[in-house]
Amino acid sequence: MATDRDSVLEAAVGILSRRPTAHLDEIARAAGISRATLHRIFPGREALILEVGALGLRRFSAALDTARIEEGNAEAALRRLVDAVVPDAALCAFLAGENQLYDHEEINDLWEKQDARVRALFLRGQQEGAFRVELSAAWLSEAFFDLVAGIGWAVQEGRLAPRESAFSLAELFLGGALRRSDTP
Amino acid sequence: MATDRDSVLEAAVGILSRRPTAHLDEIARAAGISRATLHRIFPGREALILEVGALGLRRFSAALDTARIEEGNAEAALRRLVDAVVPDAALCAFLAGENQLYDHEEINDLWEKQDARVRALFLRGQQEGAFRVELSAAWLSEAFFDLVAGIGWAVQEGRLAPRESAFSLAELFLGGALRRSDTP
DNA sequence: AAATTTTGAGACATGAAAGTCTCAAATGCG
DNA sequence: CGCATTTGAGACTTTCATGTCTCAAAATTT
Questions:
Q1: For A155, which residue in chain B has the nearest alpha carbon?
Q2: How many pairs of residues across A and B have Cβ atoms under 8 Å apart?
Q3: At what angle do helices A74-85 and A105-128 cross, to 10 degrees?
Q4: Distance between CA A131 and CA A116 in Å, rounded?
Q5: Which three-class secondary structure state does DSSP give residue A178?
Q6: pLDDT tier at A18 (50, 70, 90 boundaries)?
Q7: Residue of A114, A4, A17 whose CA lies nearest to A63
Q8: What residues of A are in contact with residue B176 (Cβ under 8 Å)?
Q9: pLDDT mean over B80-99
Q10: d(CA A149, CA A138)
Q11: Which residues contact A125 (CB under 8 A, 6 or more apart)?
């Protein structure tokens, strides 16, 4: 459930994923609280950003769990992952853009762990013959994340309907832009 | 050719695309000049950022020109575009992340114009039967840009070899991650 | 309804980066 | 070689977001 802190963090993401330099004023207003209260909940800007990152990682990690990406065939696992991750795409977009967090050991470790799970999925998919081997698993993993972030931005700014987002992401990433006469 | 200003701007991109909040000190050092000289060339931070954006758009526009995206079949045009745009991927990554520039009329207009050209390419490709029609031209265009930015980041941080970048971008975007028995 | 707690608005202090200036060193030019 | 221009290092001022504080209003509890 969305605790009090989490709802503030989600409001913060809405602002920060678009403008990482936004003032605390603005974030507080978006969260519907005063700057004073924001300060009471989070000691300062740095702490706030850190917690947004931590929330993003928790959600991403939870998405990997609910999608059970280690099970079944790789393509189906990836499709499940898309469905699970799309609701938190904005959070992922923030994570993707916030390279500053990477010198925080705790965050860094958690990120590394989740990233490894995704890379492993692609590697497994390549070994199963599901994914192309001409593209490195690392690049597949990174590109996937880029597109998740892109979906997050596009939805947030109204350029893409939320209902289409999972389909658009999965189809483009898996199938590419080229039309084909046959289904694979 | 890279005039004096442009070389400073390119150094600035190297820093700013990774950390948009970097101090001017750092940017000056990266450009090999002093903070005083940086101030002499660009009146201030805002002006610098603006010019970086303008350079990015000029380069992107030039890439669309050299790729002659309006000519020939759409797939080939897109492949040419990939080759033309990859050298400036870092600049594009900056553009993608810098939504602040969008309230500058001049920049905004220029961006809108180039974006329209790319969208037109995808639309044309869909009409020719080259690109899938289940995905909107707007999303194809946006996703393409997301991946260009991703390539820029990955190369800049050494996660992807520059020589592989054009291939990785074109293949993933056009063909997707799924392996296929036949070539389309 | 009274008491306790939480919140918001604003004033104020702090600190850090941006912007400005000066002057000596370096560079380029005639 | 001497003159002119440009550059760099640093001190300084300014600006603005952050962080801190206070107090009254609102909400919650009992």
A1: B139
A2: 138
A3: 140
A4: 17
A5: strand
A6: confident
A7: A114
A8: 172-178
A9: 93
A10: 17
A11: A74, A75, A77, A78, A131, B177
Residues A14/A92/A60/B18 CA torsion (nearest 10 deg): -130
Query: Is the C-beta atom of B81 closer than 7 angstroms to strand D?
Result: no
Q: Which one, of A32, A168, A21, lies nearest residue A89 by Cα?
A: A168
Q: For B64-91, what is the mean pLDDT?
A: 97
* B108-156 pLDDT per residue, tens: 999 999 999 999 999 999 999 999 999 999 999 999 999 999 999 999 9
Q: Which pLDDT score is estimated for A97? A: 82
Q: Which of A47, A126, A52 is nearest to B178 (CA)?
A: A126
| C-beta atoms of B135 and A181 within 8 A | no
B65 and B71 in contact (C-beta within 8 Å)? no
Tens of pLDDT along A84-107?
999 999 999 899 888 777 778 899
Q: What are phi and psi of A54, to 5 degrees?
A: -65, -40
Hey, how many other C-beta atoms are within 10 angstroms of the C-beta on A74?
A: 21
How many helices and strands, by DSSP H and E, does chain B display?
9, 0
Q: What is the pLDDT of residue A182?
A: 57
- B22 to chain A, any CB pair closer than 8 A? The answer is no
Nearest to B54 by CA among B9, B19, B23: B9
CA gyration radius for chain B?
18
Domains of chain B: 4-175 (1.10.357.10)
Which DSSP letter does residue A100 get?
G
What are the b/e assignments for B24-38, b being 16+ CB within 10 Å?
eeebbebbebeeeeb
Q: What is the mean pLDDT of residues B5-27?
A: 93
